[in-house]
Design goal:
Number of strands: 5
Strand content: 5-15%
Length: 255
């Protein structure tokens, strides 16, 4: 029987399937997102946590094939059910904190490697309605047939505290969560104002200039996935590359 990989918040601390480091990382995350003294900027995430709409998984490292397969399995399970969970749902993937210190650039490489590994073992084709070129404003990373927005948190973040975590951590937010939420909609303007206001006091650096709305001509989703401390830092080209089977229109399973 396979081990349980996908957890609700109230299952984590008592579960024998969650390692000690995972429980510690979750408690650190929980204290941040529920803080009343220093409200967490992402109000959708806070609301989702309070309503038990978030799901969690724990793996050791993105550089172990079995760990990535386990992460992919949990993510597929989540994607198959997320529309039944609730509008402000997210999937949070925790990796085991390391004893060594890594630079921001190393964590950025780790993040894009993780997305690459997930893409390489994805069993479904890239959705036809999502562009395959990251330079397109309608591009979004896709897995298991769903476009997903990412937020990467690391121990290397210090000034941008909204992106700091106990260990390497990735939050997966299905594009569906943001349907009807644009810069022109009432709810979109409200969410943006609250988030920006909270960022002013939560972070020790101003909001990153790359934060924007999906689909706007000047916006590129991939630039928001991993934010550096320096607002002037630019990654250049998107590190993500489609596997050859997608580039040439044919599918070859790696399983």
């Amino acid at each position: 029987m396979a081990s349980k990989m996908l957890f609700r918040a109230n299952e984590i601390l008592e579960s024998t399937h969650v390692p000690f480091w995972g429980k510690d990382a979750f408690q650190y995350f929980q204290s941040d997102i529920l803080s009343e003294e220093n409200p967490f900027p992402c109000i959708l995430g806070v609301e989702g946590f309070k309503k038990d709409l978030l799901r969690f998984s724990f793996v050791t490292t993105p550089y172990n094939y079995q760990d990535i397969r386990n992460a992919a399995s949990a993510l597929r399970e989540y994607i198959d059910t997320f529309k039944t969970i609730g509008r402000y749902t997210s999937f949070v993937l925790f990796f085991k904190p390391e004893h060594k210190e890594r630079s921001m650039e190393e964590y950025e490489t780790m993040f894009w490697d993780t997305l690459t590994f997930l893409h390489q073992i994805d069993q479904k084709k890239w959705p036809q309605d999502i562009p395959k070129d990251p330079k397109d404003p309608l591009w979004e990373f896709c897995f298991h047939g769903e476009p997903i927005f990412f937020v990467c948190n690391t121990p290397a973040h210090s000034l941008r505290k909204s992106r700091k975590s106990r260990g390497f951590m990735i939050t997966f937010q299905p594009r569906w969560v943001f349907e009807g939420m644009t810069g022109d909609s009432k709810i979109g303007r409200h969410v943006q104002k609250v988030v920006r206001d909270r960022l002013k006091t939560y972070d020790d650096v101003s909001a990153h200039p790359e934060l924007g709305w999906y689909g706007q001509q000047e916006n590129r989703e991939w630039k928001q996935y991993f934010l550096h401390e320096d607002n002037n830092y630019t990654t250049g080209q998107c590190p993500f590359k489609l596997k050859r089977s997608e580039q040439h229109g044919r599918k070859k399973s790696l399983y």
